């Protein structure tokens, strides 16, 4: 007989969470506005992480809520399989207009993980359509995070995210990461390390460049602690990809929508990839949604090769281009444009980076990396790797600050609406809590 359910915290298995600890000492938030959350006791918590790098325009944007409500009242759901609705075309147009080069076709999904898997499938479909079906390998990078589905897990380079999930996909290999010992307390792009891109050549030489479909990288690696690309590194990757006919895919799930300074990291670092995966701030976090933006030539190659009246790409999700998500996406883009939020973030970035770098004198702070409106603060490890980061995240929350710890690194990424006073508050709580170790 089924056990009687009780209305406790037990039934929700939280993702990427120490569930036993959480359920003993829950951290619940029940209200959000601007730069703040409020916990269930009614105490204010400054959001130093835009939720999870999602809420670039701050919390509680009424324009987005109203747009979603209006859409749901008019039409709650429509499939995008052999059918369309106006707002998906408008959002695709808006995204295409922000893209560099001839990246102007947009495929919608629901999460960053799905966007990454979609980009992988498009790469494979493209080479099949081109008659280069032997290109089935992917090169990603150590310490990368590309999501939790099997494609993204295979590409990822974080051991905890991989070790109990089997062998990954065949044909996925990893370049060395770019976190070099001389990159200490660097603001912006490190001067050294461009040659790390030549690690891609190792796989070209081992397998043959003609067997590699794509090189997939986060332009700045977020979940591992914000590894900003060395100057010239992404340019060199682009060069090698061009020499060997390999697609370059940027996973901008965190970087996209102003985080690095410009709209997309492709623009901040001035390198045009062949596809860009995006999610998180696409809807300001108000609805789950992701997208892959694709060069026109890739779309044309796949679509033109299929017979008339036939589906060209056998891929998609029930909620691809969900009307409510499209409404949220359009409303978020309106805010970003109207409030010039990307420019605002870029202007605030020097103040933010200085404030974070000022924490370097705290004894447990081992290194800090900062670019745009994001920073990674490495904390000295305790007995177990990750234990210090976990403990710090909880202490910071109890002191009224939310951020994301990843291993022993504290990730700080305030909304692009942050005022100097918010940044001062964030660095003040960080100093108080981290100095107490
Ligand atoms: C670079 C990158 N790719 C993919 C993902 C996965 O996104 P999601 O959690 O929405 O599936 C993330 C999530 O943080 C990410 O940072």
Describe this protein's structure:
This protein is an alpha/beta fold and 437 residues long. The chain has two domains: 19-57 and 340-435, Aspartate Aminotransferase, domain 1, CATH 3.90.1150; 65-338, 3-Layer(aba) Sandwich (Aspartate Aminotransferase, domain 2), CATH 3.40.640. It has 15 helices and 16 strands. The protein has helices spanning 19-24, 50-53, 62-74, 86-98, 112-129, 150-155, 159-162, 199-207, 233-244, 265-268, 296-305, 323-338, 341-357, 387-398, 420-435; strands at 29-33, 36-39, 44-47, 103-109, 137-141, 172-175, 186-187, 212-217, 247-251, 275-278, 290-295, 365-371, 374-379, 401-402, 404-406, 409-412. The protein has a seven-stranded mixed beta sheet with strand order 4-11-10-9-8-5-6, sandwiched between helices. A five-stranded mixed beta sheet has the order 7-12-13-16-15, with helices on one face. A hairpin with a 4-residue loop joins strand 2 (36-39) and strand 3 (44-47). Helix 13 packs parallel to helix 15 (420-435). The longest helix has 18 residues, at 112-129. It is globular, with a radius of gyration of 22 Å. The termini are far apart. The relative contact order is 0.16. The mean pLDDT is 97. The structure holds pyridoxal-5'-phosphate.
